[in-house]
Sequence to fold (125 residues):
Amino acid sequence: MNLRTLAKIFSFFLGLCLALLGAAWAYMATSGAVKSDITESFVAAGGLLLAAAPCLVFPFSGRLAKALLVVFIFAIAVGMLWLVFQPNLPAEHPAVLQVAAIALVVMLVARVGLALRRKLSAPST
Fold:
């Protein structure tokens, strides 16, 4: 077995564990076992399922795994923006956190945009 095969096997099992954890979390939120905030529990379960998707797909399609990973990173960036622009942010310097979140989103959009531009402008063979 070579290193690439081991990486695919590890990725699949990691994705399986994340998917099972996300499904269990969603089941607990649905069953009423979570009393604090059901919406946050569903967001956490969805985040775990979204994180599991690239790991589960990687052994079969590296290209699709990259696309799913970009979607997951965009979801994290949007969640970060949502968290730092809440009116009840429990931080001493919220402006620093807001600038960091905005910088992450701008760098992510620029990186994905440049990669797409390079891919579209490359001569096809």
Notes: The chain has a mean pLDDT of 88. The first helix runs from residue 3 to 31.
